[in-house]
Amino acid sequence: MIFQLNIAAIAAVASQAAWKKAKPILVRDVVILPALGFLGIILLWWIVALVNHELMPTPPEALVANLDYILNPFYERGPGNLGIGWLLIASLRRVLIGFGLGALVAIPLGFLIGMSRPAMLALNPIIQIFKPVSPLAWLPIALAIFNLADPSAIFVIFITSLWPTIINTALGVASVPKDYLDVARVLEMPRWRRITKIIWPASLPYVFTGLRISLGIAWLVIVAVEMLTGGMGIGFFVWDEWSRLNLSSVFLAVFVIGLTGLILDFAVSKLQEFVTHRPTAAN
């Protein structure tokens, strides 16, 4: 009993000493270095604003000008006069609908391509042709089909978020170790069981990598699409404020767009950790 207590005390002291050594490194990597990076960007912005002060505000001036948006993000002051929070929600709704529909189509297609050589030979040329097409090139086609801005934006998100998920899913399925499949054949495991017990778990990291890339592209595209189609959304907010030469609000929108994209990617990475029970490479 005394020996066990001594071992526990030694372990506690060792862990405490290790934490004391790791804490400064953690503070440096998580707090100090990122803060220095942000300060560098703000300093660069400040210098450029001082050079071109007639049009571009300095960081303090932009903060003061945007206090109403920051303190009251969900205000409603008449038709078309909404807080930036409502505009962000409208854009997120379009992105999540288009991205979700894309994932529902892309993951099964990726599995089909990864498991079937004839399917790969038939579908790969189509993917290689449409993958490099600019997302905005799909917008006129979507407007011709739907004749409305909202479903057209969702369609553009859907079509452009397909390719990374399809390609990564197919790569994940094709990368499953052959030894696993040989053992499954020896055990006479049914095909559906091979898919659910071997191929699906082994390819999950690739699937989530594709989903994270697709979601990032979707969030990039929605801003450009909303600039062209107008209506309610964070992209139209950027264009509208630029038309009024209100760069303070444009800087606020850029920060909100970037922070939202970071949160979306973080959420998918946490979902990946929950599903796969493994830490992601980014964490």
TrEMBL record:
<feature type="transmembrane region" description="Helical">
    <location>
        <begin position="30"/>
        <end position="51"/>
    </location>
</feature>
<feature type="transmembrane region" description="Helical">
    <location>
        <begin position="95"/>
        <end position="114"/>
    </location>
</feature>
<keyword id="KW-0813">Transport</keyword>
<feature type="domain" description="ABC transmembrane type-1">
    <location>
        <begin position="88"/>
        <end position="268"/>
    </location>
</feature>
<dbReference type="InterPro" id="IPR005889">
    <property type="entry name" value="NtrB"/>
</dbReference>
<feature type="transmembrane region" description="Helical">
    <location>
        <begin position="126"/>
        <end position="146"/>
    </location>
</feature>
<protein>
    <submittedName>
        <fullName>Nitrate ABC transporter permease</fullName>
    </submittedName>
</protein>
<keyword id="KW-0406">Ion transport</keyword>
<dbReference type="InterPro" id="IPR000515">
    <property type="entry name" value="MetI-like"/>
</dbReference>
<comment type="similarity">
    <text>Belongs to the binding-protein-dependent transport system permease family.</text>
</comment>
<dbReference type="InterPro" id="IPR035906">
    <property type="entry name" value="MetI-like_sf"/>
</dbReference>
<dbReference type="Pfam" id="PF00528">
    <property type="entry name" value="BPD_transp_1"/>
</dbReference>
<feature type="transmembrane region" description="Helical">
    <location>
        <begin position="152"/>
        <end position="177"/>
    </location>
</feature>
<feature type="transmembrane region" description="Helical">
    <location>
        <begin position="245"/>
        <end position="268"/>
    </location>
</feature>
<keyword id="KW-0472">Membrane</keyword>
<keyword id="KW-0812">Transmembrane</keyword>
<feature type="transmembrane region" description="Helical">
    <location>
        <begin position="198"/>
        <end position="225"/>
    </location>
</feature>
<keyword id="KW-0997">Cell inner membrane</keyword>
<keyword id="KW-1003">Cell membrane</keyword>
<keyword id="KW-1133">Transmembrane helix</keyword>
